[in-house]
Amino acid sequence: MYWTLELASYLEDAPWPATKSELIDYAIRSGAPIEVVENLQEIEDEEEVFESIEEIWPDYPTKEDFLFNEDEY
Q: In whole angstroms, what is the distance from residue 35 CA to residue 38 CA?
């Protein structure tokens, strides 16, 4: 399983919290690339409820990871 920022971005608007099957269904319905569905299928725990993309891909960057000052804009 590999994630990139582009692949993970397809799950940003997913209906969190969600189970593996709900996320796969969302990815298919939203037209996400097949790689997103394949990554989700590789998750082992079928019944676990995920609260956010960070639980699937812990390295997912958040706003705090970017070094820019919003007050300047």
A: 5
